[in-house]
Amino acid sequence: MNVILDYDVGNLASVMRGFERVGIKSVISKDPKVIRQATSLVLPGVGAFNEAMRSLKASGLIPLIMEHIENKKPLLGICLGMQLLYSASEENGYTEGLGILDGVIRPLKVSLKVPHMGWNQLKFNQTNTVMTKYIREDDAVYFVHAFFADTHFDQVIAYADYEIRIPAIIQKDNVYATQFHPEKSGLVGQNILKAYGELIR
Questions:
Q1: What is the pTM of this model?
Q2: Whether 96 is catalytic
């Protein structure tokens, strides 16, 4: 069962519809019993990092997320949900994150428009990976963010060029993440969710 975590942050219905479009049965829940039975967890998120971390702590879900990962079950972070997986963020001051991935979330300091909003092409940093099996290099996906993960590129599956290389798809063991919104990225996004779904069936 694919469980989309409800911690009062993010467009949960949009994420749910994204999975439904590729035939992956999902539920939205904050119930510990449901979460412990999950074969997969999805950590969505929209808004500011510090507020999202406060909501996540208040929800009591962090120990369940850690338990899930320790049990080697897949987890997918989306957009802000991806950023929360990192050690810390510089958005609105310094805020510690979940520390599941190594790196710091930093502001985009580029001459291009910020937020980075709209379609951008994916460049592969690694090939023959689970998350990219149904997509091609230069396929475009939909981004909405003003901060990016400053991280080691050995965990970066794909990135987007926006004067700097923005990590776009991440994998560390059983933890996967996308900076963009696959649920808003048309057929390419559907194919990414399809590939992730094969991990949890």
A1: 0.97
A2: no
